[in-house]
Design goal:
Helix content: 40-55%
Distance between the termini: 33 Å
CATH architecture: 2-Layer Sandwich
Shape: globular
Largest sheet: 2 strands, parallel
Number of helices: 6
Number of domains: 1
Strand content: 5-15%
Strand order of the largest sheet: 1-2
Mean pLDDT: 93
Radius of gyration: 15 Å
Number of strands: 4
Structural class: mainly alpha
């Protein structure tokens, strides 16, 4: 029996490559999707609640935001999603050329594009944001 009232998973990366390069994490996709599916089962059984958080990263629409939202729409369609725009680069993201793709804050247009996709897919994000 789970003792968790609210699951608040961060679903940042849509590819293992991005997760490994930017956060040093192996097997990100299989682990995060497994864990969110498990939490979602508890939600559908009325045992807990869930809000999935997705941090929009600059230059990571195709590789990260799009696959994340497509998976959520298919696998956890009733889960509310907090599409977050507060990414702020610091330390290595700013000083190391290997991370030049994430060396700036996310643009408003990038966040809008992710939210438009969420609307197209029927992802429930507005109830979290507004």
């Amino acid at each position: 029996m789970d003792l968790i009232d609210l699951w608040l998973p961060d679903f940042k990366y849509g590819s293992d490559e991005c997760a490994k390069r930017l956060s040093g994490v192996e097997n990100y996709w299989s682990v995060i999707t497994r864990n969110i599916k498990r939490a979602y089962v508890n939600v559908t059984e009325g045992l807990s609640s869930i809000i999935i958080r997705h941090l929009v990263l600059p230059n990571h629409y195709e590789c990260c935001s799009k696959p994340v939202l497509e998976w959520i729409a298919k696998e956890t369609p009733k889960a509310p999603v907090n599409i977050m725009e507060q990414y702020r680069p610091c330390h290595l993201a700013v000083s190391d050329r290997r991370y030049s793709d994430v060396s700036r804050p996310v643009y408003h247009e990038e966040v809008s594009r992710v939210r438009e996709l969420a609307d197209e897919l029927g992802v429930n994000w507005r109830s979290v944001t507004h």
